[in-house]
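User: Fold this, then the next.

Assistant: Folding the first:
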Amino acid sequence: MTETIQTVDQLRALYPEAKPMVRQKQLCALDRHARRFVELSPFVVLGTCGAAGNVDTSPRGGTPGFVRADGEQTLLLPDLAGNNRLDSLQNVVECPAVSLVFLIPGVDETLRVRGRAEIVVSEALRQTFEVDGKRPRSVLRVAVDAVYLHCSKALMQAGLWDPETRIDRATLPSLAEMLRDQIGA
């Protein structure tokens, strides 16, 4: 037997089929529960992949509802001020397929969304996302293909919201200290 999986058939031989409910819970649109989840979420992870296979996952945060559902088939994600690397946005230009994972503090379930994105720079749309006199430079408009609520197992196993699992921040050097060590900044 080989040490690595090389084919989908080998992979399927290793794992049982997903239960019917697991497959059925995937929707092709944002229902009222998904829209409410997005509305309450202050944090989303955006996954993208560029033409050369450059994969990126980027955390995005704001006040709850900073990402908006525009009907059942569209999500709007403002590109708030960041580090200007543009890894995710460059990937979207090259390959519009995206994946989003929404989290709500204290809720162990997550919402996963898959779709195709485009970068919108419309002044009118950007204005609707203005916060404290600042507008995003662009808004990611995601045409939704698949939506599903993901069970709580991973967050529960991680104890992500459990105060007992939190480390003392001093256990890890500050970002400034780590950057100084890594790049001399």
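Now the next one, as you asked:
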Amino acid sequence: MHTDCSGEGLAAVADALRGGDLRAREYATTVRDRIDERDGAVHAWVDDGKSRAWLTAEADAMERRHPDAAERPPLFGVPVGVKDIFHVDGLPTRAGSSLPPGELAGPEATAVRRLASAGALVAGKTHTTEFAYFEPGPTRNPHDLDHTPGGSSSGSAAAVANGTTPLALGSQTVGSVIRPAAFCGVVGYKPTFGRIPTDGVIPLSTSVDHVGFFTRDVAGARLAASVLLDGWDDDGTDSAAARPTLGVPDGPYLDQATAVGRDAFDAAIDALARAGYDLVNVPAFDDIDAVNERHDTLVAADAALAHGDWYTAYPDRYADATAELIEEGRQAPVSALVRGRRGRAELRRTLAARAADHDVDAWVAPAAPGPAPEGIDDTGDPVMNLPWTHAGLPTVGLPAGEVDGLPVGVQVAGAFGSDERLLRWASDLGTALSDAA
């Protein structure tokens, strides 16, 4: 069953709101109408989002604070969705769990405060898998309701894809931004590790948790990044190559994709080549099984630490998958935690050295093993995202066609700290990938 996935890009919406061509109340009403009309089937929003009266009152207040269009902040009047592991003043945090919300309460997340300071309006919380792990919520894929939207940032990806918000916050510990972005056919961004603060976000693995976000357009992703990332500095005048040389990781890593997913990736590579990009096959991840194991153990050990008190107090309220992760982490030796944390930097250095040896500017890879699996009891496999997350590299997920009506995507990973350059490249990359079969 398919639904209407129409909606504007963040950049165009923000321009119209700042310039006065679109009133904040008018757009808040439009968003509220779309949630009422579309979300009953998709279930992206927790409690259907903020009420119409609440959201329009905040829009009116924003207009009173900023009557002069010339002085309006960059996200003036833009309604955003916030994954329900972020604390937001005035809204409970449930994290997709059955724990008492009072136990999970905390100060508002820095990422949320930055959006608010830039003029954005929180339209509500979006559904997440339990504690951003694997236990799914109720959200369905807007492109086909019989398929998963991915996870763990299920609601955020689906809300943007369904046109009920132009921007939504998510998080990624393995593949929780880039994979659902691919499944839902939108742009996902996971920055360099640490460039968006994670305070005020319920942790899964503090060693590899990243705050990220979803938009419908690359221009919107750059706009959101300029507000959210520490030390954003992009005037477009540095010496970055106008068209990057792209490295394709050659070896067992790509063998983790399905046959259908690999065919879709090959079509994307062909589209990039037709657009004039230089693509270089680079031997990488010969030890991918060890990298996967190291990352999984690190996440488990960190989860056991982060959830120790809650799990002790409410063991029966955790889903089986999350409980198994915590129990595994409790059994992990301290040496495994140390080895996992040390491995992040080692992998980062290895990838940088391979890129330098082959004159590669960025890496391109499948954003998921294939299109979204059928059913909503499984959010799909994040294995294609894992090494880039482990290394903490900035990664943008871009739509790259469809397979049997379901979106597929690619991910492009840049050098550590090169977020500005990566997102500048992403616009032309996205245009080229729109030609993927």
